[in-house]
Amino acid sequence: xxxxxxxxxxxxxxxxxxxxxNPFRFVAGYKALLLGLGIMLISGFIGSLGNTHFDGLLDVHxxxxxxxxxxxxxxxxxxxxxxxxLFFFALIVSSSSLRMIDVFATQALARWPYLLVxxxxxxxxxxxxxxxxxxxxTTGISLAVNVSDMFIFGFAIIVVIFMxxxxxxxxxRAYAVSCNIKxxxxxxxxIVSIIGAEALSKSLxxxxxx
Length: 210
Fold this sequence. Notes:
Elements: H1 2-7, H2 16-21, H3 29-49, E1 52-53, E2 61-62, H4 68-93, H5 100-109, H6 113-120, H7 124-138, H8 147-179, H9 183-209
Antiparallel strand pairs: 1-2
Helix pairs in contact: 3-4, 3-5, 3-6, 4-5, 4-9, 5-8, 6-8, 7-8
């Protein structure tokens, strides 16, 4: 916790790799919260342009039309579904004093890789390729498909996979740094939280849809 407070005073230092994989050493508190929320809102807006939904902690789906507020709500639900259990686990297993704002802020900032996912899923080719695959595997009907559409869709899937891995790594690092937890306790509580958050976020978003 001391590291995160001290690093918050100096946001200009650090290498590019540190900013990419451990930005929580340099920015925390309200600055990280505002930055994280801003990125989530931008991601939701870009997602709305291509009907790309972050309908679960790690989930990405495209196709369903929805009002703009629904895309924003998905991001907020995903964020809180993980931040809340992580904070309560930290209260139990961490021996350091905790600041709620640091836990919630760093988890918000950790979701920034999905901004790149929203951009990658923006082309209409992704929806045409998705419709083709859905029709082929559910009805057996083969629709006309453009090779370039499939190439763009394949690239987008690769981006989604890598960004999901990156985001989970950032979430763990945010948890470890903001709560000053490491080792087995950090790994076990994080895994339990992320599994529970995936189920919780899916349930809440489905409830919101109804």
